[in-house]
Amino acid sequence: MSELTTIVRPYAKAVFDLAIEKGELDQWSEMLYFAAEVSCNEVISDYIGGMHSISKLADLFICVCGEQLNEFGQNLVRIMAENNRLKMIPEMYIQFMALRHNYEKQVDVYVFSAIVLDSAQLDAIARKLEVRLARNIRLDCSVDETLIAGVVIRVGDLVIDNSVSGSIRRLKDTLQS
């Protein structure tokens, strides 16, 4: 996987730099997302893996994407086809979005709670995390009834466990030491 990341990084960085230069971050996000979905399609994926001419492969991919790709997106597909990298578009999309989130100082926060949280509770969590992390927060919330009560917040490698089950687990570990 790290080899794939290393191979795709220059493409993602170049596309990101172009998107910033042109002021088209949203458009490039949409184009790359669509192209990633196309490359994951079973029929297209099999076709990409087959022995076809580069120009036919690029033309088919561009034809399937239709108006979703502008001229720069089409050029990207041609370059990736020439370098036998069309299957790597999903990874490139992931890296592009990571660059975008870093640029926009955004972070995805996963909130697991024992019950559905109301908007006031979610706003309070978002405000506190924005201050702590100095980033714009995007919350992704889900219910986990095994928590008994409270919340678990995950931001990358950071985990904040304010759940009853987490407190019980910590108490158990303390008593056993």
TrEMBL record:
UniProt keywords, alphabetically: ATP synthesis, Cell inner membrane, Cell membrane, CF(1), Hydrogen ion transport, Hydrolase, Ion transport, Membrane, Transport
Annotated compartments: Cell membrane; Membrane
Annotated InterPro entries: ATP_synth_OSCP/delta_N_sf, ATPase_OSCP/d_CS, ATPase_OSCP/dsu
Primary location class: membrane
Membrane topology, record value: Peripheral membrane protein
One annotated GO molecular function: hydrolase activity
Gene Ontology cellular-component annotations: plasma membrane; proton-transporting ATP synthase complex
A Pfam family the protein falls into: OSCP
SUPFAM superfamilies: N-terminal domain of the delta subunit of the F1F0-ATP synthase
Keyword Transport: yes
Similarity comment: Belongs to the ATPase delta chain family.
Biological role stated in the UniProt entry: This protein is part of the stalk that links CF(0) to CF(1). It either transmits conformational changes from CF(0) to CF(1) or is implicated in proton conduction.
Cited PANTHER family: ATP SYNTHASE DELTA CHAIN
HAMAP family: ATP_synth_delta_bact
Name used for this protein in its record: ATP synthase subunit delta
